[in-house]
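Hi R.,

Here's the chain you asked about this morning:
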Amino acid sequence: MIYILYLILAIAVVGISIKLSYYVNLLDRTTNISGAFIGGVMLAAVTSLPELFTSISATVFVDQPEMVLGNILGSNIFNLFVLGGLILLNLKTFKKCFLSPSHKNTLVATIIMYVLVISAMIFPAHFHVFNTNPVSIIILVIYLGAVKMMSSDDSKDEDSLEIEASLTKNQILVRFGIFSIMLVVVSIGLTFATDILAQKLNLGMTIAGALLLGVATSLPELTSSISLVRMKNFNATTGNIVGSNLFNFSILFVADISYSRSSIYFSNTEASNLIIAGLIATLASLLAFQFKTSSRTYSPVVLNSVYKIAGCLAVLSYVLFLRSTI
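And the predicted structure, written out as tokens:
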């Protein structure tokens, strides 16, 4: 029964996410709001709501703090696995697409957050601020700074076509909000289902968070990203994925402040493998964007090779993590 419930919840997440991506694309095409802000902040925050509420549920309701780090790190690497796969499968579209410059800054901020998490795992904090690890506070500050940069990014794809919408901007926002709330409700149910499954399958909580929760809560990013690429909106897709990864790290602050019994930064083999794989995938994505923003400097052959290598590294990093869990 629990397997069927988990599957139903996962399918619900997919369906809701497809609708959210549709409304995000309408906003991007019918308003003057930058694609960086729409994809990197609005859609990223909404598609990361499952990670937020499952992490809160893991600490407050089921008392499984190890699931939090596994959930966040697992979601991040799965998101980059999706991005790498989309680049490889849609190479022509990626080469021609416009990407907001702030996406590269978002990836740099994400790398810094990985380093901060490593430091929190290796060097336990001897003092706390409002019962919170200082690393969590620094992560929140970096996220807010990145959001400010994305909101001030007024770059726009000059080649993108504006479309006629049968809905007004207010109607789009209201429907976007309704489906966002639905996503929250389903996400909380996923946490309880994952906790039961982990105990039933005798999985460690970090692994359960990375595999069961990490993949399930990343379904919004997966489905919305595929939908947006089909709509030829690679910029919003990229912003969704890299913005979601950044938002996911900020969830550590929420989880940390809501859990007072011990630290949420557990040092174990599974978490270490997730961090190594996540760093490799993030650096690979940064490499692709670096060449993308200076594409006129390099020949098409070089660019093709770099994009393929970066995409393969992002995909293989997740595959190698899965292999390490066996």
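The first helix runs from residue 2 to 30.

Let me know if you need anything else.
M.
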